[in-house]
Write a structure and sequence with these properties.
Arc Repressor Mutant, subunit A, 5 helices, Alpha-Beta Plaits, four-stranded antiparallel beta sheet, 172 residues, 2 domains, single chain, elongated, alpha+beta
């Protein structure tokens, strides 16, 4: 069942995406609502799993400057085993089942492009992986943590907030 959210929720989400350390008081001031309203909204968003408080790690600060997407063709009877083995590789930051020419999609973060070949060889040794296709990702423009549902997914807020206000969008 889909929980309903409104434009105030969207603006709170956008402010938290731009800086998760913002206090309820600062958010309330920026949006012209009470701090209690903001706290209640954040609690509801968290309890409904609409937002998940977490830490986003910047891989570049740790020296991981190269991202690669690897699309794996996998033996059907070994899909689960292969996906678990791929997820366990320390370089891998994303694993998903996919359709089309590949069965599992992964993304890995590496310190340099020189390490791509060795990493792909490691992936090829995972039981069940028959073939891989690798794409070097030279630059990420929008990462998954930057996504928000479209404004149309949010109901109107009685306070008439503009859900498209650009001042709360995270900078790219």
């Amino acid at each position: 069942m889909r929980t309903s959210f409104d434009a105030l929720d969207l603006r709170i989400i956008r402010l938290l995406q731009s800086d998760a350390r913002l206090s309820g008081a600062v958010i309330a001031r920026r949006l012209g609502v009470s701090e209690r309203t903001v706290r209640n909204r954040i609690d509801r968003l968290t309890q409904s799993d609409a937002i998940i408080p977490t830490v986003v790690i910047n891989p570049k600060v740790f020296g991981y400057l190269t991202a690669v997407d690897v699309f794996c063709e996998v033996e059907v009877n070994l899909m689960e085993q292969a996906s678990r083995a791929l997820a366990a590789l320390p370089e891998v930051n994303y694993v998903a089942y996919s359709t089309g020419d590949q069965d599992i999609s992964i993304q890995a973060l590496l310190e340099s492009s020189d390490l791509v070949y060795d990493f792909v060889q490691k992936v090829a040794r995972v039981p069940g992986v028959r073939r891989t296709r690798t794409v070097l990702v030279p630059r990420v423009i929008k990462d998954t943590y930057m996504w928000t549902p479209p404004a149309g997914d949010f109901q109107e807020y009685p306070g008439h907030l503009d859900p498209e206000s650009a001042d709360e969008r995270p900078a790219l």
